Amino acid sequence: PGNIIDKWRRQRTTLQDNLQQTLAGATQALPVEEQHQTLQCLCTELIDYVATGHFRVYSCPLSLTAQKPKK
Fold it and tell me: Among residues 63, 48, 59, which one has the least CA distance to residue 8?
């Protein structure tokens, strides 16, 4: 499975691929319901990606500095 950075990188790649497909019009031939579902999935992936960065990647350095021993 790898570390959190590897997972985050894989999420980013998937997100980019799905965004490119959506913006390139690959979903325009789909019925409206499927277009809506595709956009919902893209939004969910985006939220998961941002949350991973916020709660797991960017907060790690803060938690490490907060735990410095007292002199």
Answer: 48
21-61 pLDDT, tens digit each: 777 776 677 788 887 888 888 888 888 888 887 777 666 55
Q: Residue 49 in contact with residue 12, Cβ under 8 Å?
A: yes
Give the N- to C-terminal CA distance of the chain in Å, as an integer.
Answer: 39
Using only C-alpha atoms, what is the Rg of the chain?
A: 17
Q: Residue 22 to residues 3, 15, 42, 61: CA-CA distances in angstroms?
A: 29, 11, 9, 35
Instruction: Record the pTM.
Output: 0.58
Residue 46 burial by CB count (10 A; 0-12/13-18/19+): exposed, middle or buried? middle
Distance CA 70, CA 68 (A): 6
Structure tokens at 67: 């735990």
